[in-house]
Fold this sequence. Notes:
Distance between the termini: 8 Å
Radius of gyration: 17 Å
Low-confidence stretches: none
Structural class: alpha/beta
Mean pLDDT: 98
CATH class: Alpha Beta
CATH architecture: Alpha-Beta Barrel
Strand content: 15-25%
Shape: globular
Amino acid sequence: MKLGAQLYTVRSYIQTEKDIRRSLERIANIGYKSIQVSAMGSIAPEALRSVCDELGLEIALTHVSADRLLNDTEALIREHDILGCRYIGLGGLPDKYRTEEWYDCFAEDFRGPAQRIADAGKLFMYHNHNFEWQKLGGKRMIERLIEDFTPQEMGITLDTYWVQAAGADVVEWIGKLADRLHCVHLKDMDVRGSEPIMAPVMAGNMNFQAILDALRQAGTTRYMLVEQDTCQGSPFDCLQTSYDNLAALGYR
């Protein structure tokens, strides 16, 4: 399982081509060998690939807009060929699909793009938050998603923090989703007063030893991507702390 950085963590610092290079240099210097492209400013895929190759960074996964997935699928596939990236991700269910009235339309709308992505040798990846554990029609949305798409049509980028925030058991859901977990987001939960906050990996209260053991047992995870949406201090320092804690366990 390769250790990477989810660039959403440093989204404020990757909005220009110059800052993208600066940020990627800092991430490579921490020791990360792969990244997820998310919330990045405009840069040609050829230019991004060139910078990443120079710095020894593999592009593991992206998050792209629902509109591009639906309406620009072939161009999206070509861009990912340039990036050398197999996994094309959606960051969450668009709002209209989160209702009983419209949920069924998600599979109807996205199955075609997912199949075209699969035909190109890549995989559509869905990233969870906590709302997918809400029930619609007597079933959790996450359960309906994995019924509606085969593992060949859709993988799950499991976000450890958001599973915990849903009140669910992260280890249990790693087991349930084992055949889809090619990429995961590692993110810890701490507390300030009565409020949960995001924390560097192994700096909070989640049982990361059990989580990492479960991922090894599942045997399908290729990329463990450290992410912290909100940081107490510098996001680069948070990425450093997470890296150091995981590297001490042998993950790099």
